[in-house]
Amino acid sequence: PEGGTLVVLAAYPRNTQNIFAGSGGGGVFKSADGGLTWEAANLGLGNLQINALAVDPLDPMVLYAGTYKGPIYKSTNAALSWAVASAGIQTEAVTYTLAVDPKTPGVVYAGTRGISNDGVAPWAGVLYKSADGGASWQAKLQNIGGVSQQDWIYSIAINPTASNIVYAASHEHGPFRSEDRGETWYPVSNGITDGSGRA
For the residues 46-73, what does the mean pLDDT come to? Predict the structure, then answer.
């Protein structure tokens, strides 16, 4: 892959020969031979600053790509082409993380930061959920740390055997947990002395 620093990798768990890479400036790259060779896969991408990638565990043809200060994109043909799938996402979102429910078709999560004051709080952080495969998104976790902070989510993890349980790591306010597929959230920071989170 050429054209930018590699930011994220994603693979379909049942066929590890298919690997996708997101770069900060070169868009998405795809390998069909376990990473031996790569080719650009950017048809339809209007923003080549890729910040997050996720493959649908239930359908290897479906991928989601989150961008830096741009929309979320979806592919339904294993990255041969992309289309905007960002209805309901805030303007110029920085998408840090994407996660797809391994049990429930169409459920996708996105952790974003909005237009902020040159990196200074409030950050307009919002965790979104889509129940229709990215056709529309709804805010489910926001105002973390209060309106003066509005912290964002860096990463999301879904329990692979009980996908109603979802975890989210925030930038400065510790981890959160949901037990109802992201509809409601509560902090789970007991024992953690440093609230800074990445994964």
Answer: 96
